[in-house]
Known about the structure:
The chain is of the alpha+beta class. About 30% of the residues lie in helices and about 30% in strands.
Amino acid sequence: MSKAKERGQKEQEQRKNQAEDLGDALNALIGEKVIHILGKPEGLHLVQVRPLWGNYFRVNVLIGPDPASVRVANSYFLRTDGEGNIVESTPKIARQHEPPSGESAGDSCLVHSPL
C-alpha cells in the first residue's frame, strides 16, 4: 500500500473517531440536561441516550440497586438544537426529584422553540 493511501486511511479513521467522540459528548450532555430538569432519582443507574435521526433522541432514565434489577423510570422522546439543548420533549420533562448537588431547583435547560 502506498504512503499516500495509508495516510488517507489514517486521516479518515481519525475523522471517524472524532465524530464518534463528538456524538458521545453530545449524548452525555443531553443526559445531563435531562437529569438537571428531572432531578436525580434515588438509585439512578444510567441515563441512556439513543440518537434516532437528525436532532431527535430517545432518553431512558434507568434506576435500580444493581444491573440485574434495573428498570426504566422515565422515558422521553426529545428534539434538540445543534448544541444539544432540549427544544421539545414528549412527554414534558417535569421535576420529580431533588436537583443534582450544586444546582438550584429553578434552573432549566429547556430551550423554548420560537415555532
